[in-house]
Design goal:
Blueprint (H helix, E strand, L loop, with lengths): L1 E5 L3 H17 L5 E4 L9 H11 L2 E6 L7 H11 L10 E5 L18 E2 L2 H14 L6 H21 L14 H20 L7 H12 L4 E3 L2 H12 L3 E3 L9 E3 H4 E3 L1 H8 L5 H6 L2
Parallel strand pairs: 1-2, 1-3, 3-4, 4-5
Antiparallel strand pairs: 6-8, 7-9
Helix pairs in contact: 1-5, 1-8, 7-8
Length: about 280
């Protein structure tokens, strides 16, 4: 089953990546989640997105109070909705990171049954996806895996995405809307030519340590867990157990694996002085 996840803005993107991880942990090998950042270098972004929209069997819209009017997000929502008949409209689900303003009730997105980005709402989304699959996972096993194992990691990610300022509705002119579309298109165009992620220094260090010193001892703290979740959600590492359940002290390689994408990332970043010496 292919799922298209639409986002606009940093908080929406972080939620989309975290949700992607959760879905792939709950439905290993049977669900493929596309987030528009996951486009390989050299690919034509527009063709790839159109192809993914055409093949998708479910759509998720990660909404915040900042992006619910995003022209590009509305375009993707419409494209996904066209894939389904009126009886299948439940396959397009807005995932609410924030409370939306009253004006959102007049948005085209109001036709879709939305869920909140909390435990209950996320599980309702998971159930909808499971019911849309050809071979649904037994509900008792799905519930246990969600509530007892994997939800806690996504919950920690969502806690960091709370908006920090009160909602300020802003009326935008047609020109401003067109400029927003142009900016979004230019951003996606650049993504099609260079999808390399610029990691914070500490996260890059964790990635190098996992490759070069997998037996290195780490001590758990909230910042470390946040960094590891980010690396995991970007697809650069893979965790064997929930990051929330890491022991107080642990060896990095006992709980994480470097993915092929992570290895490729390290090949494309500048080497450290020690790595440069080893190349001579």
């Amino acid at each position: 089953m292919r799922i298209f996840t639409s986002w606009s803005g940093d908080r929406s993107k972080a939620a989309a990546l975290g949700l992607k991880t959760l879905l792939e942990q709950l439905f290993p090998e049977t669900v493929q989640v596309f987030v528009s950042e996951h486009i390989s270098p050299g690919e034509r972004w527009q063709e790839r997105i159109e192809s993914e929209l055409e093949q998708s069997e479910f759509g998720i819209l990660c909404l915040t109070r900042d992006n619910w009017e995003s022209p590009w997000l509305l375009f993707e929502a419409g494209a996904i909705a066209k894939r389904f008949t009126s009886t299948q409209v439940s396959r397009v689900v807005p995932y609410l990171i924030d409370d939306l303003p009253p004006a959102a009730e007049r948005s085209p997105l109001a036709q879709f049954q939305r869920v909140r980005a909390d435990r209950e709402g996320t599980y309702r989304l998971i159930e909808a996806i499971n019911n849309a699959r050809q071979n649904p996972r037994p509900s008792d096993k799905l519930k246990d895996a969600f509530h007892k194992v994997w939800w806690v990691d996504l919950e920690e990610t969502l806690k960091t995405l709370q908006a920090s300022s009160p909602l300020q509705p802003v009326a935008r002119s047609d020109r401003e809307l067109l400029e927003t579309i142009l900016q979004r298109v230019e951003t996606l165009s650049r993504a099609g030519h260079a999808s390399q992620v610029d990691l914070p220094p500490m996260e890059l260090t964790h990635l190098r340590n996992l490759r070069d010193q997998p037996d290195l001892a780490y001590k758990r703290d909230s910042n470390l867990q946040k960094e590891l979740r980010h690396l995991r959600d970007l697809g650069l590492i893979k965790n064997r157990k929930p990051i929330a359940d890491l022991p107080a002290s642990f060896e990095l390689g006992q709980h994480f694996d470097l993915t092929a994408k992570g290895r490729d990332h390290l090949k494309n970043v500048a080497p450290t002085p020690g790595e440069q010496e080893g190349q001579h």
